[in-house]
Amino acid sequence: MTCIEVFAPAKINLALHVTGQRADGYHLLDSLVAFAPVGDVLQLRPAAGLSLTLAGPESAGLTPGPDNLALRGAALVAAGQGAAIHLAKHLPVASGIGGGSADAAAAVRGMLALRGTEAPAGLGQDLLALGADLPMCRMNAPLRARGIGEVLEPLSLPPLPALLVNPRLPVATPAIFRALACRSNPPLPEALPVFAGPEPLIDWLAGQRNDLQPAACAVEPAILAVLDALLQLPGCRLARMSGSGATCFGLFDTEAEAGQAAQLLRAARSGWWIAPAVLGDQTQRATPRRQ
Q1: Cα 46 to the chain's mean position, in Å?
Q2: How far is CA 153 from the centre of its chain?
Q3: Phi–psi pair at 276, nearest 5 degrees
Q4: With contact defined as beta carbons under 8 Å apart, do 84 and 45 qualify?
């Protein structure tokens, strides 16, 4: 039987500026995004209808019902064809790294591969209706996202050695936006520099922000502990929260430094989710494969 396997990489907001709010309540963003080689894995097989099973170390917080984003993503492009979807969950739930959105985007890619068809017209708007992160997670490569997440500009960024850390505490995005002190902040510079390597990119990112970080730290103080722990690690050049949290990342000049930092932090914080990663372009890895 045909089996399609799809990787759903974590999305990391290297910078996230909240620049306004529309009359309908949606917030306007200006964000620099890269993707990690850590993520969830979906397998899709032909079936009479759409169904979902769950496994993996981070699956406890999920249910396989019709509200699951992976099922909702697959349904967008099913066109009457069924699929039995198995989701191996490795990314923490409600963690600011696009886990559910990445799963939905991967389910779309997998369903199209299972059907042997191209993406239909208007799919971008359908994905946006499911969540602002979905159009980004469809790309899996460095980008700048503006508007409410629908205005995407592909970028060329150098690979960034990083350490991803989550204290295993879910954070509800609506609560973070409600706690925002200011909803109209300066955007990223209109013209972004060309970065010759990770060092100048990290230096430049240090002058940018995640405008959700102060609100998230007020709602969930454990994020402050994560940021402090990252900054204490040898070689950590910058520590910041991704998305609405609680996942944070530390940036390093080399992959070896990030790996050594992961070992040190795992020894000190065995209950945290800790993943070294080189952030960048995961397009090839996210391409569906027949098994």
Answers
A1: 28
A2: 17
A3: -70, 145
A4: yes
Instruction: Tell me the C-alpha to C-alpha distance, in Å, between residue 61 and each of 169, 226, 266.
Output: 11, 21, 22
For the segment 1-60, what is each residue's pLDDT rounded down to a tens digit? Answer: 699 999 999 999 999 999 999 999 999 999 999 999 999 999 999 999 999 999 999 999
The answer to whether the beta carbons of residues 142 and 34 sit under 8 Å apart is: yes
pTM of the predicted structure, to 2 decimals: 0.97
pLDDT, tens only, 180-239: 999 999 999 999 999 999 999 999 999 999 999 999 999 999 999 999 999 999 999 999
The two tokens of residue 285 are 């890895």
Residue with tokens 């997440």: 149
Residues with catalytic function: 11, 133
Nearest to 242 by CA among 46, 97, 74: 97
> Could you check whether the bond before residue 246 is cis, i.e. omega within 30 degrees of 0?
yes
Rounded Cα–Cα distance for residues 234 and 160 (Å): 16
